[in-house]
Design brief:
The complex is a heterotrimer of chains A (478), B (377) and C (171). In chain A, 67% of the residues lie in helices and 2% in strands. Chain A has 478 residues and is mostly helical. Chain A is globular, with a radius of gyration of 27 Å. Chain A starts with 10 loop residues before the first helix and ends with a helix. In chain B, strands 1-2-3 form a three-stranded antiparallel sheet, with no helix packed on it. A three-stranded antiparallel sheet of chain B has the order 7-8-9. In chain B, helix 2 runs antiparallel to helix 3, helix 3 runs antiparallel to helix 4 and helix 4 runs antiparallel to helix 5. Chain B starts with 17 loop residues before the first strand and ends with a helix. With 171 residues, chain C is of the alpha/beta class. Classes of the chains: A mainly alpha (478), B alpha+beta (377), C alpha/beta (171). At the A-C interface, helix 19 of A face loops of C.
């Protein structure tokens, strides 16, 4: 091929044809159908081999606790701190590590947003028998980037009559809690950015902040759809904060600490996930979180088919993009919190010594995020009053009862002087049975006549035509 | 658009109503359809329907075109059920002019009308579930079958949406040979697919919560409000023109009419679901009974029926598609009136919506399965 | 022959109507009956409620311009007895284009009467909300009238095709 392409000659097309005719070995592998599986297996092999090498070194004892142990970035930061402390004022090392950590979290969130939106769109496409974005970059991976650039280039319109200041603040204000919520999440034994001893309280406080920005957005837009969305958001947040707090309270009662890293450590120590021990708390927390972050089936605050886009109806360009990014980011935060609080965090029954623990946490977060996307691709939406009734009439009483049960169990656990495994196993069995009983007997069945068998919901089949009289006859004897 | 819009009175103890403008560009109005709603919180206290954004004065245009030239208009009225519109006009004009239709054409008409019914119901039910908040998934599932049906249309008459397939005295083209195996394979798949949708949706607790007991129309109201089609049958009235006034030899086919039990949104959904199954049955029988022979008779291009009038009607996917034609002996109808089921099914909308909450009203509107091209004509 | 397969003969309807409401029917045709404008609501109510004719549903309503007057056509049907009845009524003249509204008898007339008013300019007295349906308030004229937009030398309708005249080839 010549260096200068000759655009006038058909040779360019010919070259393209030639390329298409001789597929690359990789493409040929993909074409085999099994190719993807092979590629995935190969990638896993590489990662596994790398980790085995690291593990060998660890088992050999040469790496234990060293700053270059990649499985725990906290060690490297600790080393940096001690070295800085030796030469400078302690404030310097504090600021340096704080800024480094914050930058790390921001970079991580940026990556999560870009990758997350790609994953969500691809997954949704698969649920909907479509292909999803596959044009920009390999497998369409650069599509989120292209979208972000497009959004940034768009004109940002402000509706006439909008409150100018309050209109500008929310897209930024809504972003802050989404970032802050990552603070106390423990990534590895020594790798927590904000390892405060009131972590659970902090999470509750920060997650409630978002509603202020959303209400501001709805109010300032001077649009009835936005206002409806804002009112729905507030109603929902106020209602669902309570079950969330009660679910977290039962976790705190059981573990006896508010510190997230301690909660993970408790789960690792007892080799038991709190989600198994406290199934009601897990389900309550997860369901309430979907309401809090506007995900299906509780996305009534931005119900597309009813109120267009809810509180961000009037936002355009990157401002709307920020709202959408935060929505996605919140979903990932919920994934991380559920993984941390209920699914053992970075621990995975010993595997975390072989695989970097932050990858374990990432995998668990991804699994929860997958469930959220799955729900979005599957379920219709509740109505506002149904959702409120579910919170106040069902979730809150059940959560209070659950807290009472857990309080009793926790006090027994603290007083009993036997191996921890015995009471914990008993509690797990009791709580799972209670949860099953709740689902079986107390869950409110909706949809018309309670317990109407499916056969009675099917239409009647007839061959005789008629009018009102025929209808009445059929109603009498279906 | 129109002059005054009812705003709703301020009542003591109730908040001041505010106006919400739904449409003409809104995700759940299915086209350029507009509602002005006076709301008190989430509750609708008054409603006004504003249509006409798609008005093309079809009936006036039709007065200056021959009967055959008017067939394309019927495609564009109900663009989701072009075949039914075609069939309605052709039957009415044939009765007016006394044209005989060959047997093969009659059976082909049945096949295409029923295929169109399946495609239209797939669309109607899919958008209904989307209105209930399932983000596009049911719609795209149901598009699978609709896509195959539109492929069949395309291979027969070259068009997918506005088919313009039927002619006075028959149909425009005989289906190509490859049509029949594709139709067979579609018919083989359809019942299983309908079962799959039933598995996914009809027992879904959230879907039940959103549709059971919502938008209930009593049988008496449905009859008095001129509702037809699945909307009428959902209310428990066993009325289907294919049985009541069998055209195109529908009395020869063995099928049943599904009838709802409560008249709510769910029943209308289920009736459409069941009608897809019944349509499959009809197509199978029609395929078995498809005779040979010509697919149309020669009819003068400028048909001049005797002076008189006719009201021809067929059972479209949305209800009774009626054509009222008045002839003065000329080549064009003196008066051409299309009874649009989409418009007339909306007669009860205000009654249903006032007092309901916004999400319920959206789902109810979705269950009435409107096509704006037909409302506005 | 253009009569619908399940349509009742006009004479039969007229007979029943005359027995119940003498003087309501002003003209009888093989396919339809013409009801006096003043007694329309009465006649429709009787048809709806009668056991014998049971016209429970207003299937279709439309107006036709006959130059001297407008005719409003009601296609009624009985679902239980499975038959169709065609009832017509006429406005007094072109200028006095009004008929009583059938809304009080059939809710299904609500939008159809608005449509007929919008496009044909027939006033339905007693309609609860008689506004234009498709066109906007203030639109000049009613498009379906035969005298709408009369251009010099152009007559509404399609009198003949060019190729129907001798010497002109059909394309």
């Amino acid at each position: 091929m010549s260096a200068v392409p000759d655009f006038a000659s058909p040779g360019v097309d010919g070259a393209a044809d030639e390329r298409a005719a001789r597929p690359s070995p990789l493409a040929a592998l993909r074409g085999l159908g099994l190719g993807r599986l092979l590629m995935l297996g190969g990638a896993l092999l590489v990662v596994g081999a790398a980790n085995a090498a690291i593990g060998y070194v660890i088992v050999d004892g040469r790496l234990e606790g060293e700053w270059y142990d990649l499985r725990d970035l906290g060690l490297a930061v600790g080393r940096l701190r001690t070295e800085l402390d030796a030469e400078f004022d302690p404030a310097v090392s504090y600021w340096v590590t704080a800024i480094l950590g914050a930058a790390g979290i921001l970079v991580f969130i940026g990556g999560v947003l870009l990758l997350g939106s790609w994953i969500e769109r691809r997954l949704l496409a698969r649920f909907q028998i479509r292909r999803g974005p596959n044009r920009v970059g390999p497998f369409g991976l650069l599509q989120p980037l292209a979208d972000a650039i497009k959004l940034m280039q768009k004109e940002v319109l402000m509706p006439r009559g909008a409150d100018r200041l309050l209109y500008v603040i929310p897209p930024l204000a809504v972003f802050i809690p989404a970032v802050l919520a990552w603070g106390p999440v423990p990534w590895a034994p020594n790798m927590t950015y904000l390892d405060i001893n009131v972590g659970v309280l902090y999470v509750i406080a920060v997650s409630s902040l978002g509603v202020l920005a959303l209400f501001m957005a709805g109010w300032a837009s001077n649009n009835h759809y936005a206002l409806l969305g804002a009112m729905r958001t507030v109603a929902m947040m106020v209602s669902y904060e309570i079950p969330i707090s009660l679910a977290l309270l039962s976790v705190v009662l059981m573990t006896g600490t508010l510190q997230l890293s301690e909660i993970v450590a408790w789960q690792e120590e007892h080799r038991l996930w709190l989600g198994l021990l406290l199934p009601v708390a897990l389900v309550t927390f997860f369901f309430s979180s979907t309401a809090e972050i506007n995900r299906t089936p509780n996305d009534i605050a931005e119900a597309e088919s009813e109120i267009v886009a809810g509180y961000h109806t009037e936002y355009s360009g990157m401002k709307a993009g920020l709202f959408m990014a935060v929505e996605l980011g919140n979903a990932v935060v919920v994934g991380a919190l559920v993984a941390t609080l209920f699914l053992g965090g970075w621990s995975l029954f010993g595997l975390e010594t072989w695989v970097p623990p932050y990858l374990v946490l990432g995998a668990k977060t991804g699994a929860i995020y997958f469930v959220l996307v799955w729900l979005r691709g599957t379920l219709p939406r509740f109505r506002l009053d149904q959702l409120m009734a579910f919170a106040w009439k069902f979730l809150i009483p059940i959560s209070i009862a659950n807290v009472a049960v857990v309080a009793v169990e926790a006090s027994i656990f603290a007083r009993l002087d036997v191996a921890a495994i015995v009471p914990l196993a008993a509690f797990t069995a009791i709580n799972l049975a209670l949860a099953a009983a709740v689902v079986r007997f107390a869950l409110p069945a909706s949809g018309g006549p309670r317990g109407a068998p499916p056969a009675l919901r099917r239409p009647v089949l007839t061959t005789a035509v008629g009018g009102l009289r025929a209808a009445q006859r059929m109603r009498v004897s279906p | 658009m129109t002059g005054e819009v009812a705003t709703g009175e301020v009542q003591p103890g109730v908040g001041e109503p505010y106006i919400l403008n739904i449409g003409p560009q809104h995700p759940s109005t299915h086209g350029v359809f507009r509602l002005r709603v006076a709301m008190d919180g989430e509750r609708i206290v008054d409603m006004d329907m504003i249509v006409g954004y798609l008005h093309r004065s079809m009936e006036k245009l039709a007065e200056e075109r021959t009967y055959t030239q008017n067939i394309p208009f019927t495609d564009r009225a109900d663009y989701l059920a072009a075949m039914s519109g075609n069939l309605g006009l052709c039957l009415a004009a044939e009765r007016l002019a006394g044209v005989e239709v060959p047997g093969r054409a009659t059976v082909l008409r049945v096949i295409f009308a029923e295929l169109q019914r399946i495609a239209s119901h797939a669309m109607g039910n899919g958008t209904l579930v989307s209105d209930a908040g399932a983000w596009q998934t049911p719609l795209l599932y149901m598009f699978r079958e609709r896509e195959r049906i539109l492929d069949l249309f395309e291979m027969t008459c070259g068009a997918r949406l506005t088919t313009n397939y039927m002619r006075i005295g028959g149909v425009a083209f005989d289906p190509p040979p490859e049509f029949f195996p594709k139709l067979e394979s579609l018919l083989d798949d359809l019942p299983a697919r309908v079962d799959e949708y039933a598995d996914l949706l009809v027992d879904n607790e959230i879907f039940l919560a959103r549709t059971r007991g919502v938008g209930v129309i009593s049988a008496a109201d449905a009859i008095n409000g001129s509702l037809t089609g699945p909307q009428l049958r959902g209310s428990g009235v066993p009325w289907d023109l294919r049985k009541a006034e069998p055209y195109c030899g529908y009395d020869r086919y063995d099928f049943e009419i599904p009838v709802g039990r409560q008249g709510d949104v769910y029943d209308r959904f289920m009736v459409r679901m069941e009608e897809v199954r019944q349509s499959t049955r009809i197509i199978r029988q029609a395929l078995a009974a498809l005779p040979g022979g010509p697919h149309k008779t020669e009819v003068p291009l400028a048909l001049r029926p005797e002076p008189g009038e006719v009201y021809g009607r067929v059972e479209g996917p949305r209800g009774e598609v009626g054509f009222y034609l008045v002839s003065d002996g000329g080549p064009a109808p003196y008066r051409f009136h299309l009874r649009a089921p989409s418009l007339i099914n909306l007669s009860l909308l205000k009654k249903l919506a006032v007092g309901a909450s916004l999400p319920d009203a959206v789902v109810t509107l979705g269950s009435l399965d409107i096509v704006v091209g037909e409302i506005d004509r | 022959m253009p009569m619908g397969p399940r349509q009742l003969a006009g004479e039969r309807v007229a007979e029943a109507l005359n027995a119940a409401l003498p003087g309501a029917v002003v003209e009888v045709h093989a396919e339809w009956v013409v009801v006096a404008r003043e007694r329309l609501v009465e006649a429709l109510t009787w048809l709806r409620d009668s056991e014998e004719l049971d016209a429970a549903q207003l299937s279709d309503l439309c107006a036709v311009d006959y130059h001297a007057h407008f005719e409003v056509v009601y296609h009624l049907q009985s679902l239980d007895l499975n038959h169709q009845i065609v009832v017509k009524t006429r406005t007094a003249s072109r200028d006095d284009a009004s008929v009583p509204s059938a809304c009080s008898v059939y809710q299904g007339a609500l939008l159809q009467e608005r449509e007929a008013y919008d496009l044909m300019g027939v006033l339905f007295e007693g309609h609860p909300d008689l506004r234009r349906l498709f066109l906007w308030e203030g639109y000049p004229g009613h498009p379906l009238r035969k005298d709408f937009l009369q251009v010099q030398g152009h007559h509404p309708g399609l009198p003949s095709f060019p190729f129907e005249q001798p010497g002109v080839q059909a394309r």
